[in-house]
Design brief:
The complex is a heterotrimer of chains A (393), B (185) and C (288). Chain A is built from 13 helices and 16 strands. Chain B has one domain: Pyruvate-ferredoxin Oxidoreductase, domain 3. In chain B, strand 2 and strand 3 form a beta hairpin. The chains are: A alpha/beta (393), B alpha/beta (185), C alpha/beta (288). At the A-C interface, helix 1, helix 2, helix 3, helix 4 and helix 5 of A face strand 2, helix 3, helix 5 and helix 12 of C.
């Protein structure tokens, strides 16, 4: 046996670029690069640190910027600043850091600055369980910052989907001028999985609209459309950005009529865009089909993998079970769950939290359907048997 | 669940447990063209704490990424051996280091006690390659991936300039597996 | 011809929110004159501010302007500057904004020598919220949250910035408007992190509690108690009590963050070209 020659090494390298064993966090960083992200600011925190480490290595090579800021708050601030300068930007964190980012996240919501925030969920509250998985930030991702605000939250369940959903996160953030949160959990972030990466053409990157008219007529927050073009600083469109309530021009206003108009547009753009934003996967038959579903399982993230296993086993023993897996968590796919749960007898909601998803599902299912929760908050992922028990018992 | 095989590597931080898992998973996923998922758990310590890596290998899709019914368990400490042997399925394979693990629990499985750390010192002169010897022995005894795939995966993962060293370690592991199989036959 | 301030302000945003007699306008005018001397186009200038009276400056000026969250202006500005180094990024902040809630960002931007100019309006009080004590309130002064007098010592802002690594640091007051303008001009010419402490007056919530209700009394105070750095060097600590030492405290030629990043990036790209010369795409850009 001898050491590999140079050509053998190159061949291996090329092959590995198509088919790879990739870590979830690595796939997130790769997805960001593929989406055109060229600015990352972050602060080290388990279990998301690998995203920053990967981008610290790769961003300078593609002419992008990486900076490790002095804290989580500064990281969130810096990516908003970079985005205003016209560069797609991202930060990544976990529970405690996500809490710290909330104020500036709200700024991005009301000032309508595209950016992507990755939260790799770990046990909480507080320092909690740094190396253990959790899904306890489901509600915080929606309502973490104060005040009514629009937000998009995506939750992939496989390493390949981490890659594609990270791209989608950027695309939605650019399309809707809104922060998008990519919600992962420790299992997904740290597991390595065989991935055949999609061709770039399969995941095209979307860029924000830029104004083309005369600068003096530019309205960064026009009220006659959901999403106005966003001019990068330095492009000749001098405008003002503030976290204060503002009117169409971007300048602060105290006018109740103008505030109402802007806030309704802000919330409305998510409602009207829900069809484009929402993605989910249904495994097994749907209600009303030839095989009416008796039991519906609703799960997301790595828990959906255990659920898929359990549903597969239940179906093998001739149970009528389907899995509804939301990929878009917010706006919550209420209509879709209503439709598939129309005649179900039982709904099983496994989650690594104490009923945050279940509460939302409860609102969408028939009152007579029995809701069964399968919860774990001890750092141990929910096993397929636990879900199977809830399906069959 | 076609041919789902679950492997768990266990020991303490700094023994190369997680790298072993990554290499085995890459051997399966990239060089043997199967599906593979690798996951891990660890404590806050960089060195010395409990360390665990799992690899699921299958010809089909892998949904649940964690091991529940283990086919192959490697334990490099007595603590890990005592903790994880109950998860081993009937007829599974347990591989331990003969110096670190002195008491092998009772059970319906095949147990192999191998002087992994001693071989690393004697045959390669570096204790740090113990994980590669263990991988060689594990694959030699179970055939969970092909030897060729494992070699490729080792070469692509180890630092440049240490290829020969690691191939020597891998071969020592294969040889140890062959020796044990001859003794069994 | 008199200086045309109208060129740089947004008339639609006036009247401003500052009280009669507030010193902030003097600082803003000094800033605008300094920018004008730089000969920059309005399109290439970015003014970033935090929260507080002085931070309202961004809305009044006709540049690319960003009014951020409390204390975070420097962190937002860091993102802007890195993303587009061609932009001239100026941070306008106050003593509460920059030293208390934003203190961490201030010292770290100075440490990494981020290419920003910070104009710190020091009125020694939280004015917008009603006169609570700030990290710059002198000892024994009264504030709404120090009804028995301030017991905490204040930061020496210029020493703080200098110690943290800023390349250019100066202090002046609203009484010394021309000196203030000159210091800002020098700061704008520097690469790396520069900071100007502009001592300004708040007659409404500070003066009222501290026996200086008339704006002019502040100016008289600044005139009487300002000591140039060179002169202060020969004075004892006792003699300097209650004095405002003005001057340039740091002026060093040190490579800024942006230049360092650019050199590092070139190195990273050179390594990449060398390693992947055979045409196989490197890891990390598969999706590109």
């Amino acid at each position: 046996m001898k050491a590999a020659t140079t050509s053998e090494t190159a061949e291996r390298e090329a092959r590995r670029n198509r088919i790879r064993l990739m870590q979830g966090n690595e796939a997130c960083a790769e997805g960001a690069l593929a989406a055109g992200c060229r600015f990352f600011a972050g602060y080290p925190i388990t279990p998301s640190s690998e995203i920053g480490e990967y981008l610290a290595l790769h961003l300078p090579r593609v002419g992008g910027n990486f900076i490790q800021m002095e804290d989580e708050i500064a990281s969130m601030a810096a990516i908003i600043g970079a985005s205003l300068a016209g560069v797609k930007s991202m930060t990544a964190t976990s529970g405690p850091g996500f809490s710290l980012k909330q104020e500036n996240l709200g700024f991005a919501c009301i000032a309508e600055i595209p950016c992507v925030v990755v939260n790799v969920m770990r046990g909480g509250p507080s320092t909690g369980l740094p190396t253990g998985p959790s899904q306890g930030d489901f509600m915080q991702a929606r309502w973490g910052t104060h005040g009514d605000h629009p937000i998009v939250v995506l939750a992939p369940y496989s390493v390949r989907e981490v890659f594609t959903e990270t791209i989608r996160a950027f695309n939605l953030s650019e399309s809707f001028r809104t922060p998008v949160i990519l919600l992962m959990d420790e299992v997904l972030a740290h597991m390595r999985e065989k991935v055949i990466l999609p061709e770039p053409a399969e995941c095209p990157a979307v860029d924000r609209l830029r104004p083309t008219g005369p600068p003096e007529a530019y309205l960064p927050y026009a009220s006659d459309r959901d999403v106005s073009p966003l001019a990068p600083f330095g492009s000749g469109y001098r405008f003002h950005v503030t976290g204060l309530y503002h009117d169409e021009t971007g300048f602060p206003t105290g006018s109740p009529a103008k505030i109402r108009q802007q806030m309704e547009r802000l919330m409305g753009k998510m409602e009207r865009g829900a069809g484009q934003i929402q993605r989910f996967e249904l495994t097994g038959a749907v209600s009303g089909g030839s095989d009416p579903v008796d039991t519906l399982v609703v799960a997301y993230g790595s828990t959906a993998r255990a659920a898929k296993h359990a549903v597969g086993e239940a179906r093998q023993s001739k149970r009528s079970v389907a899995l509804f897996r939301p990929v878009t968590l917010w706006p919550f796919p209420e209509a879709a769950i209503r439709q598939v749960s129309g005649s179900v007898r039982r709904v099983v909601v496994p989650e690594m939290s104490l009923g945050q998803l279940a509460g939302e599902v409860q609102k969408c299912i028939p009152p007579k359907a029995e809701l069964r929760r399968v919860n774990r908050v001890d750092g141990i992922p929910i096993a397929p048997e636990e879900i199977l028990d809830a399906i069959v018992a | 669940m076609a041919n789902r095989i679950e492997v768990r590597f266990s020991g303490s931080g700094g023994q190369g447990i997680i790298l072993s898992g990554v290499i085995l998973a890459e051997a399966a996923a990239i060089y043997d063209n199967k599906n593979a998922v690798q996951s891990q758990s660890y404590g806050p310590e960089a060195r010395g704490g409990a360390s665990k890596a799992e690899v699921i290998i299958s010809d089909g899709d892998i949904d649940y990424p964690k091991a529940t019914n283990i086919d192959i368990l490697l334990a490099l400490t007595q603590v890990a051996c005592d903790k994880y042997t109950p998860d081993l399925k009937e007829g599974g394979v347990l591989i331990v280091d003969s110096q670190e693990v002195l008491a092998i629990p009772e059970g319906n499985f095949r147990a192999y006690s191998i002087p992994i750390f001693r071989l690393a010192q004697e045959k390669v002169g570096k204790r740090i390659v113990a994980n590669i010897i263990a991988l060689g022995a594990l694959v030699g005894l179970t055939g969970v991936v092909s030897r060729k795939a494992l070699e490729e995966a080792v070469l692509s993962r180890v630092p440049r300039g240490t290829e020969d060293l690691n191939l020597t370690a891998l071969r020592a592991g294969f040889e140890e597996a062959e020796r044990l199989q001859r003794a069994e036959a | 011809m008199a200086f045309q301030y109208e060129t740089y302000i947004r008339p639609s945003t006036f009247p401003h929110i500052w009280c009669p007699g507030c010193g902030n306008g003097i600082v803003v005018k000094a800033l605008v004159r300094a920018i004008d001397r730089m000969g920059w186009s309005k399109d290439e200038v970015v003014v970033v501010s935090g929260i507080g009276c002085s931070s309202r400056t961004s809305g009044y000026l006709d540049f690319n302007t960003l009014h951020t969250t409390h204390g975070r202006a420097i962190a937002f500005a860091t993102g802007i500057k890195m993303a587009n180094p061609a932009l001239k990024v100026i941070v306008v902040t106050g003593d509460g904004d920059a030293l208390a809630i934003g203190g961490n960002h201030l010292i770290h931007a100075a440490r990494r020598n981020m290419d920003l100019t910070v104009i710190l309006f020091n009125n020694e009080i939280y004015a917008m919220t009603g006169g609570q004590y700030s990290p710059a309130t002198p000892e024994e002064k009264m504030a709404s949250t120090a009804p028995y007098g301030q017991i905490e010592p204040p930061f020496d802002i210029v020493r703080l910035a200098e110690g943290a690594g800023a390349t250019f640091v100066a202090r002046s007051t609203v009484f010394h408007a021309v000196q203030l303008e000159n210091y800002i001009f020098k700061a704008l010419n520097r690469s790396g992190f520069s900071l100007i402490e502009a001592v300004t007056n708040c007659p409404t919530v500070y003066g009222r509690r501290n026996r200086m209700p008339i704006p002019a009394s502040f100016h008289a105070y600044y005139k009487k108690n300002s000591v140039p750095l060179e002169k202060a060097a020969k004075m004892s600590a006792e003699e300097l009590t209650g004095k405002i030492v003005t001057g340039i405290f740091a002026d060093v030629d040190k490579i800024g963050f942006i230049e360092r990043y650019s050199r590092m990036s070139e190195r990273a790209q050179a390594v990449r070209k060398k390693r992947y010369i055979k045409g196989s795409s490197p890891k990390g850009e598969v999706g590109n």
